[in-house]
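Researcher: Please predict.
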Amino acid sequence: MKKITLLLILAVAPLFTFAQQKLNKDEKKLIELIDKNYQETVSLLEEVININSGSLNLEGVREVGRVFEREFQKIGFQTEWVEVPSEVNRAGHFVATRKGTKGKKLFMIGHLDTVFEKDMPFSPFTWLNDSTATGQGANDMKGGDVLIFASLKAMHQLGLLDDRTITVYFTGDEESSADVETSRKDFIARAKEHEVALAYETAQGFSAVTVARRGASGWTLKTSGRQSHSSGVFRESVGYGAIYEAARILDGFREALSGEKYLTFNPGQFIGGSDISYDPVTGKGEALGKTNIVAREAFVTGDLRFLGEAQKEAAREKMREIVANHLNQTNAEITFNDMLPSMEPSEGNYALASILNQVSLDMGFGEVKPGDPGSRGAGDISFVAEYLDCLDGLGASGSGAHAPGETINMKQYSDLIKRNTILLYRLTR
């Protein structure tokens, strides 16, 4: 117990000296409350990290939602669980709301699920040293979810949420959305009732904030060839086979498009042989074949990351052109599916970044600049970026997201909560 208490004290210690004279009375009280509440904040973080909530663990996702339901009800929010159709095979979403007439109407975004499914080795919340902890989803993004709650709790304790409109929306399938059109319908509809969207994906420290992020699209490539004895490969009558055709196409993508700024395309799975099978729900595939057989089938799945619809469509068209030039005795087809749109930079986004920058300067944390869109993947905020002014990257900082040993920077965590709280305060005045 003494060790944990010491770690908490060290974690609370401010990273910079506050420019207190630039904060008003309410803002100073909010900072004091963040410190006062911090041990409870860390306990909540530990509680939700220690619940496995991989996207396909429906009960685990709901359990994390129930924890937040309990906590948000304590601070005066109305809560509900948004169901999704059973055929989608996802848990649904947690929503907490307050309604009022003053200040900006805020739509705050997080997600309950992680990439760590129930059948993977479990990693609980664990202190690694006095400034770093680890655990599944620690920074992506249970740290961000708890950060949202900690800020709103402090504001509630001072009566600063009274007559304000705030919706907190924690999706249950951000890491693996089976049917985006269905699962984000309610999310988009509610967002349109607000003026500002704030998302709490991993922060890139104190000096950057996200005003734009790339979108994500999926693609599937299927190739076929003439099955034959391998001694005849390359002959006119036999051709090259399905695997060579798939390899030609992938290398064509690389040569034609890999140098374009903000554009990436990654083949995540490659299956080839005389007979193949693939389950799109589980992502599992099988191939039958021998080294002395020219492959009859090949199958590749991948993703495409882009900034703006124009870049997405131009890349797709080039990829179709490459696919169409078949090797001898082969055929190929490529299909695309939309996943997440991109969050394009806008004047409103830059204006919000300017407000955050001033908050950071007033607190003595230094300048905050818009980050590089190429450094961020797709996120839920992109679904509403065309309707609201947006900022992302407001959550916890850390490293190793989506990998065993994911960490959260606990030395920065308290100060990120404080900065976010002052940002919310100023937006809602």
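Model: DSSP finds ten helices and 20 strands in the chain.
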